[in-house]
Amino acid sequence: MPTFSCLAILFDLDGVLVDSTRAVDREWREWAARKGVDGDAIMAIAHGVRTIEVIRRVAPHLDVEAEANAIENHEAHDQRGVTVMPGAVDLLRSIPAGKWGVVTSGSRLLARNRLQHCGLPVPEVLITSDDVTHGKPHPEPYLKGAAQIGVSPLECLVFEDAPAGIQSAHAGGMKVVGIMSTYKADALAQADAVIGMLAQLRISSNVSGTLMIDLD
Fold first, then answer.
1. Could you tell me which residues are beta bridge partners of residue 30?
2. What is the pLDDT of residues 95-116, one digit of tens each?
3. Are strands 201-205 and 211-215 parallel, antiparallel or unpaired?
4. Catalytic annotation on 214?
5. Which residue in the list 12, 78, 161, 186 is annotated as catalytic?
6. Interatomic CA distance for residues 216 and 211, integer angstroms
7. In this structure, are strands 100-103 and 126-127 parallel, antiparallel, or unpaired?
8. Tens digit of pLDDT for each residue in 3-23?
9. Alpha carbon of 193 to those of 2, 27, 86, 106, 203: distances in Å?
10. Domains and CATH numbers, the chain
């Protein structure tokens, strides 16, 4: 497996630091049943994409903003089945302060609640659906993450579990490590490397502040 070096790390949240697959699936399918929308069609596109953009694609006849707000508010207060990803706590503790952030397609309320529910620190740099005009796969979310940390996008390494997130990071000029939590390896083939779990990572830093990431 390759070794990466960078000045900062940007993590997606769901499927990377927290395991929320069951909660996301439950939330969307319950909403689909209420609205008469095809749940399978939703789940085919929902991972890694902002709620409002999913609804625009599957149910443009609805009040998109109102529906997105309702889903996100309900989801933020329903953490049933949401658990921390194995290795996430130790991994974040191994990264120097100010060297990492989270870039998620969820709302700020949802992200903060999930991080706190899982016992993870809320980073100073937290880019959410509330902070961008264009969600993943557009590069805006990851570019904002790099800008807030204060490093060039070329000096950032991204960890993602979804094709939309991989495309977003690559469009911003960043390298990406895919994690096989939500999708199998073939769906993550565009990533620069693919691993099974965070526990495979070893992160160290040198005197100049460069982070070295070894993939077991």
1. none
2. 998 999 999 999 999 999 999 9
3. antiparallel
4. no
5. 12
6. 16
7. parallel
8. 899 999 999 999 999 999 888
9. 7, 31, 19, 25, 16
10. 3-20+82-215 (3.40.50.1000), 21-76 (1.10.150.240)
